[in-house]
Amino acid sequence: MPKESRQYMKLLNLQEIKQYLESLDLIPLIEQGFVAYSQGKAVMPPVGELLIEEHAGEVHIKYGLIKQDDIYVIKIASGFYNNADLGLPSSNGLMLVFRQQTGEALAVLHDEGHLTDIRTAVAGAIAAKHLAPKSVNRIGVVGIGIQARLQLLFLKQVTNCRDVMVWGRNTVACDAYAKDMQVQGFNVQMAPDTQEIMQNCQLIITTTPSKTPLLHVSNLRAGTHITAVGADTPEKQELDAEILAKADLVVVDSKSQCKLRGEASHALEQKLITEKDMLELGTVISGDAKSRTSEKQITVADLTGVAVQDIQIAKAVYLACLFKKAHV
Amino acid sequence: MPKESRQYMKLLNLQEIKQYLESLDLIPLIEQGFVAYSQGKAVMPPVGELLIEEHAGEVHIKYGLIKQDDIYVIKIASGFYNNADLGLPSSNGLMLVFRQQTGEALAVLHDEGHLTDIRTAVAGAIAAKHLAPKSVNRIGVVGIGIQARLQLLFLKQVTNCRDVMVWGRNTVACDAYAKDMQVQGFNVQMAPDTQEIMQNCQLIITTTPSKTPLLHVSNLRAGTHITAVGADTPEKQELDAEILAKADLVVVDSKSQCKLRGEASHALEQKLITEKDMLELGTVISGDAKSRTSEKQITVADLTGVAVQDIQIAKAVYLACLFKKAHV
Question: Beta strand B187-190 with B163-167: parallel, antiparallel or unpaired?
């Protein structure tokens, strides 16, 4: 006869997830994910896709596991581009956590896309931690959206610099950005263009969905690190591909993925770099690949997003919920 | 800044799902799904798969929608074949319901695989409703597992026959089956072999994971309908392929799927039938294809499972929860 219920699954909403996130030291957890990925310990099948043309919707299903780990994770992430008309954000999502030994569902993290935003920002901090020059007098931010905010917040953990120069197309939104970031302890100055940012900042983060380069090689100075997180499709591009050619180190989160999408793909296509010029972030973290060796070097990190980040952040939130319930 | 939580998602466990199922008339709902599928109104991308060899685990991700509908559904179904050692069932799963207009998550149905069992049994009842002869004196059941039970329960809705003959390899388990089904109002007689079933039953359901045929063409009688639900991979086979060659009608749930797996695939491979001999269940239900025209005809339904069944049952449970909360 039909089985009786015997399983208890946790459902966490966005507010609860945010509370658990506060207790977590995410940088080492996501670093471990990148290392496992670069060591071939991650299993990440092809992304599933469901398109809903009538509502300008796209749904992506990303899933995978780290071998010998306790869990596997399935992430549903969607973008519905008519949602603004309904007063709703376009992006949405949830992550499901399952027990790797038995297939039992452990938790639904209904994060509405927040964990993806956070794990992307954490990856930026990890790139800066391993690649930025020691002395950063000013951080440059290109873009004024959610990532432009979250990247700065997580950079606090890897640099003492609180002086920021920002550029965005919309000056009203730039003002709002500056105010928000001042509340977080940053001194924010508006840049008239990205040239100003490249001339004054040693650590630059680009966070836009641009399809034409915003940073140009003519303005590139020695001793700069750039992390590009905006380009996650073959069409998007924030950096002049010549910047990657001129860089001493080009670090990518996933070689196989960055061959096809993101900044490195454009430089490869134009034969400005070869695959051998691309180092994987996990190998830099583990010390298997060389990191920056002088303050004068130019480094670029191209981050397109890898499922191990989702696996690690989902696992961390689930474990925080399991073991720290009393603190919330 | 990070978005504030604004969404409310329902989480239903197996017990709650069972309560809602009791209020639902599933046959017409699943019939509508088959019709929509055969009319090309369903979108069902390729199935995602995650294999966990260390624990003999496999996870399947099936998802899709019916165009112009309100929802889309993602189903996670797993089989972990070492679970018995831990006292757990091997199969498990859940279904997620999302709003097709916006991508918002509406519900998690933590059914542990039960909804898949039910929608499979309902499809069997639908096949019998449209294809079995009017006069059924005895129902034959091959297999003694969950499907062998659920198929009988749903057949109650489409036939008045309560006399059953069952065959299974394990006689102790056969006894348990007979007792369970007697409680449900059936008179159950054990058959020494499947020949006995084929000689005495007009409506036969096969529900085993057999890889060699259990029903043989030499025992096939005029006026028989057979529904085969066990074979859902290219290797499995319950019916002698000659039975399909001799049948007046061969009805499949999905032509594209049954070309590759299930009973029809074997008959096609042996060139005993052609693709033109296969009718899709949705076209029989809608009347676009002919159904049984005489009591003497032989009909076969080959059911391998289609995502529209999942979509329809998940939607029905979600709506029952939404509108009938007070009755539970």
Answer: parallel
Lookup result for tokens 């990890």: A126
pTM tops 0.80:
yes
Quick: pLDDT tens for A190-217. Answer: 999 999 999 999 999 999 999 999 999 9
This complex has an ipTM of 0.90
Pair (B266, B302) in one structural domain: yes
Q: Does B45 touch chain A (CB under 8 A)?
A: yes
Interatomic CA distance for residues B47 and B74, integer angstroms: 10
Contacts of B15 in chain A (CB under 8 A): 4-5
* Distance of alpha carbon B252 from alpha carbon B282, whole angstroms: 9
Query: Chain B, 218-257: which have a CB under 8 Å from a chain A CB?
Result: none
- Best A101, A115, A118 residue to mutate vs chain B (most B CBs within 10 Å): A101
Count the domains in chain B. Answer: 2
Residues B142 and B25 in one domain: no
Contact B9 A11 (CB under 8 A): yes
Distances (CA, A) of A111 to A27, A115, B132: 19, 6, 49
Same domain, B82 and B152: no
Domain span at residue B106? 10-115+308-327
Contacts of A269 (CB under 8 A, 6+ apart): none
